[in-house]
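Supplementary Text 2. Reproducibility record for the structural model of the 117-residue chain.

All settings were left at their defaults, and a single model was retained for analysis rather than an ensemble. We include the record here because the model underlies the residue-level annotations in Supplementary Table 4.
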Amino acid sequence: MSVVIADDHESYRQGLARAIRRFGTLDLVGEAGDGVQALNVVREASPDLALLDVRMPGLDGLEVARRLRELGGVRVVLLTGSATEELSAAARAAGVAELLSKDLARDDICRRLLAHR
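Retained model, structure tokens:
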């Protein structure tokens, strides 16, 4: 399954990228550091799934998810450091497949991504 990741914290994004590369069934096809880059990378790479940080400069993860829903064909999983009921409701409304905590181990995040094949 092909994946694009977008997170403005470079060290966190790099750690996720390494974890995704270790999983033989996940194929990292792009990375972005903000919401605008995320949209562009997803449009170019046409991944199966976009893993997006909720809080990013430019466009946040929810807005990117809304725009990707209009394009169709890509599932979105959001990452957050602080999940709330309000955020969960907004994520569902934006068509997000799952909202994951950044507190999860990176390998656990990869396993959760595989559940969205």
